[in-house]
Amino acid sequence: MTISIQQVIRGASVLAFGLVLASCGGGGDATIGGTVSGLAAGTSVTLQDNNSDNLTISSDQGFTFASPVSSGAAFNVSVLTQPVGQTCLVGNGSGTVDVYADNVTIVTVTCSMTSSVGGTVAGLAVGNSVWLMNNGQPLPIAANGPFAFPGLLAPGSNYNVTVLTQPAQQTCAVASGAGVVSSQAMASVAISCS
Question: What residue segments make up the domains of the chain, in order of their start?
């Protein structure tokens, strides 16, 4: 088999072009990220990219998903779990990684309040539930952790959280259950069961 000079030159040209393309950043993988803003203290939001690569964020900050995305591949950032008492919306969350695999840093996650009154429940036995009431609005709770009454109240409105129905063989007490709604943050009520 004879190799011509033209074939050698053509092969060298293809190799040189590949090296130039690689040095210019062609191909490869890119990270996907952006910023979270408006997240209330003590809450968290869980994001996903392409329905996987879960990322939980607990404060306003920049973020980057752990798994990179290949050049030319799609990314799609979404909210898997909303923070209690808030709704987070994703901006610039979908697209395609460019041919140079430039990192994506323009995703915005903006959170806003959807509840004026919430808090935490602690000490509730597994399988038990407690019913809370705020100014005539009932709310059943079947697990320890954060909770929120749905809906925004006008700033200056009064709230008064009480226990409507105690759990079986337990007593739940309310701390900081009454006050005035602020426009700045969700009221924080503590429910302690024993």
Answer: 25-113, 117-193
Least confident range of 3-12, 14-23, 112-121: 14-23
Topology annotation, domain 25-113: Immunoglobulin-like (2.60.40)
pLDDT at 184: 79
pLDDT single digits (tens) 139-153: 999 999 999 999 999
**DSSP 3-state assignment of 7?**
helix
SS3 state of residue 130 = strand
Segment 70-93, tens digit of pLDDT: 999 999 999 999 999 999 999 999
Q: How far apart (Å, rounded) are the C-alpha atoms in residues 141 and 131?
A: 6
Residue 182, token pair as written in the block:
């602020």
pLDDT of residue 59: 96
Residue 88 buriedness (CB in 10 A; 0-12 / 13-18 / 19+): buried
CA 135 to CA 147: how far, in whole Å? 16
Q: Cβ neighbours of residue 127 under 8 Å, at least 6 residues apart?
A: none
Q: For residue 55, what are the contacts with CB-CB under 8 A and spacing of at least 6?
A: 46, 47, 48, 49, 63, 65, 66
